[in-house]
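agent> fetching stored inputs for the calcium ion docking request
agent> found them:
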Amino acid sequence: MKRRDFIKTAGVAGSLVAAPAIAVAGKTIKWKMVTTWPKNFPGLGTGANRLAALIGEMSGGRMKVKVYGARELVPAFEVFDAVSRGTAQMGHGAAYYWKGKSEAAQFFAAVPFGLNAQEMNGWLYHGGGMELWTQLYADFDLIPAAAGNTGVQMGGWFNKEINSLRDLRGLKMRIPGLGGEVLKRAGGTPVSLPGGEIYTSLQSGNIDATEWVGPYNDLAFGLYKVAKYYYYPGWHEPGTTLEALINRKAFAALPADLQSIVLNACKVVNQDMLAEYTARNNTALHTLVTKHKVDLRPFPEDVLKKLRSLSDEVVAEVAAKDARARKVFDSFRRFRDEARAWHDISELAYYQARA
Ligand code: CA
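agent> prediction call returned; pasting tokens
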């Protein structure tokens, strides 16, 4: 019997107070997790798998979460709606995919020239970010949680050299979120495509260029076979936060200990994914360069400088679109400025000293 039916039968529909009694009665709580990633995709899909497994382990088997890859239950970009309406109790994706729902969502994934992974986590957990994110998703009956981070991404795969901003003109590139808006400002055409469709789109010429994640994921997709140049750094995604979406009613129906387990499992995966990327990008980069002879290039300084100035314009305009985006951006910007003052004399100074 489905949980919802059980509640109805028990005559307590609408009453969340009675639900915990069901949970402790020994019945396994079964959740579905829909994801925007191809099933078992390295890092992202496996991160979602790990999250589901952790919830099962930490709950001693009282909860069981089944993971669905993109298109298994719903298409990649319908994950938000599916969890919002309760088709699945949980989802795993990235908040910039939902800018159509709310412009402010993008700040919780990645902002061009914004926060890196360490700083995103600082802002979310201890700088007021999580509270703002929770408020934003409440209208959609969703509870968000940070559930993974890729670290600084790569700039992307191109079939022509990028020597000046002019080289981006007319370029049709897969690049999501605010980074895509910046490309548009530079005269290019941003395309939003789920990961699983990137390779064939680039191969068939439907797109001219793409970014995806970094060496670990890009190697797995074989993008080196369909593009010549691999540019860095990923100015558009300096520390992308992946998210878990939780249906508010399903969450409210859990006893307090299982609620804590779900949220803390997200926190574990949030940190663990970053550690995995940090370790695996190294070896993947080595393979790309030595085995597949990938032409690795830095974006020219002048290009980065102009992209940064366009990014400032774009981000400020998005923030001006509605009151919520403004509120989130103000908090984000304040944290970024403070983090920069500290990280310039700590992280940056150390990297420079080590180099
Ligand atoms: Ca990306």
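agent> quick read of the result: The first strand starts at residue 29 and ends at 35.
agent> awaiting further instructions
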